[in-house]
Amino acid sequence: MDARFTAEQDEIRLALRELLRRRCGPGESRNAADTPAGYDPELWTALAQQLGLPGLALPERYGGVGCSVTELALACEETGRVLAATPLLGTAVLVAPLVLALGTDAQRADLLPRIASGSLTATLAVPPGTALALTDDNRGDWAGGGRAGGVQARPVSGPPREDATSGGTGAAPAPRGGWRLYGQVDQVLDGHSAGLLLVAAHAGGFARSRTLLFLVPGDAPGLVRTRLTALDATRPQGRVQLRDVEAELLGAEDGADVLGALARTGDTAAAVLACEAVGAADRVLETTVEYVGQREQFGRMIGSFQAVKHRLADVYVQLQAARSAAYFAAWAAVHDEQRVGGLALAQALEALRTAAAEGIQLHGGIGFTWEHEAQRYFKRAAADELLFGPAHRLRAHAADAAQLFVRTEVAV
Q1: Rounded Cα–Cα distance for residues 114 and 97 (Å)
Q2: Cα separations (Å) of 144 from 217, 252, 286, 316?
Q3: Beta bridge partners of 240
Q4: How confident is residue 168, by pLDDT bands cut at 50, 70 and 90?
Q5: 172 has pLDDT over 50
Q6: What's the predicted TM-score (pTM) here?
Q7: CB neighbours of 369 closer than 8 A, spacing ≥ 6?
Q8: Which of 230, 275, 319 is nearest to 76 (CA)?
Q9: Quick one: which of 229, 231, 236, 278 has its CA closest to 375?
Q10: What Rg do the C-alpha atoms of the chain give, in angstroms?
Q11: How far is CA 113 from the centre of its chain?
């Protein structure tokens, strides 16, 4: 493994940092999170058109840049530094890889260029921790399991309709009714605003239980979406209700390893989220060091006190360890090495939580106020743990997968 960044990777990071410095300060980030969509469309357009960020890890034949997940993870480290409110995670990290892996040729040709250009935002409507195999084996029970709960899918037979395409995504004409979805998914990233939803649903009843993925346009009849009050306003969430909604099956009904694809996407997403958390932790540590070098107490800068130095040194060591784990996870996701995204995410989230907590403490009375930035970084760490963790469950699942605590008999 070559741990050095390439010239292209350095260029992506520097260009993105400069753009975000100019267009995504604390005030802009707060205002964007307070909009109905939860993000700034102008910033999203700039990220897509100037830097090609949504298509960074997509092949060039679909309008992408042709880089890998490693470059996307490094880019998300920069967006994490400023807590940029964008639909990048749901669109480029969760949905695009699944469409690329499982979609038909027509679905890829229609959806991926629009995702790469930024004109189409998308999200994955699943329970993140379980469905992405981060905290448990994703056997499909979370999608309904043949019983009540989750989202249920049923096929509706009939002759093709000449006046409509399946799901409104530009594919071949669907059978009359196609597939119909009924159910509810909570805590869907950008679920209230995404132009396309990729919904995991249970099909086949109890006897032929299987989990499939379906494409649902954001304006589909019977689709009810509600924005939820999220702990982290820069990571907006929505409740998605499907009331007999017509949907298009992603890929083929038989032969697609949906659960395996979700697990692989989960590992990649964990690596990206780990880099994002590292960027956030780095920024909050940077601002804290700057503050303790200016604030005076008893006639001395508080940064000169040994206790303060020790606390910040501990944060720095924890951050660097998390950075190394996140970079390795991003590299391993591309080179088909062991899946370490969950472990890297656990370490990065703990580093972010520690850095943000120390930042709040060392900023004193202003650290926890709504006006100060430190509390927003702490909320990001807590919200990500609620969605994708917590850290101890990420580690426990990794240990189970590696059979770390399985007793084996040794012949004497």
Answers
A1: 14
A2: 22, 20, 45, 44
A3: 185, 225
A4: very low
A5: no
A6: 0.90
A7: 375
A8: 275
A9: 231
A10: 22
A11: 20
CB-based contact 116:99 (threshold 8 Å): no
Instruction: Give yes or no for a contact between 210 and 184, defined as CB atoms under 8 angstroms apart.
Output: no
Task: Characterize the bridge pairing of strands 196-203 and 296-297.
Answer: unpaired
Q: Which two tokens stand for residue 321?
A: 């360890």
277: Cα within 13 Å, side-chain hemisphere: 41
What is the distance between the alpha carbons of residues 218 and 92, in angstroms, rounded to a whole number? Answer: 17
pLDDT digits (tens, 9 = 90+) for 100-134: 999 999 999 999 999 999 999 999 998 887 889 89
Separation CA 166–CA 282 (nearest Å): 45
For residues 382 and 390, what is the distance between their CA atoms, to the nearest angstrom?
A: 9
170-208 residues labelled b (16+ CB within 10 A) or e (exposed): ebeebeeebbbbbbebebbbbbbbbbbbbbbbbbeeeee
Q: What is the pLDDT of residues 281-291, one digit of tens each?
A: 999 999 999 99
Give ∠ CA 390-80-124 in degrees, rounded to 5. Answer: 60
> Nearest to residue 223, comparing CAs of 249, 185, 253, 260?
185
Q: Closest by alpha carbon to 166, among 158, 154, 151, 177?
A: 177
The two three-digit tokens of residue 238, written as one number: 């929505």
Residues in contact with 187: Cβ distance below 8 Å, sequence separation at least 6, in sequence order: 127, 128, 228, 237, 239, 387
CB-CB contact of 63 with 113 (8 Å)? yes
Closest CA to 235 of 29, 24, 16: 29
Of the candidates 270, 120, 263, 125, the one whose C-alpha atom is nearest the C-alpha of residue 186 is 125
Query: What is the b/e burial string over 344-383, where b = at least 16 CB atoms within 10 angstroms of the residue's CB?
Result: bbbbbbbbbbbbbbbbbebbeeebeeeebbbbbbbbbbbb
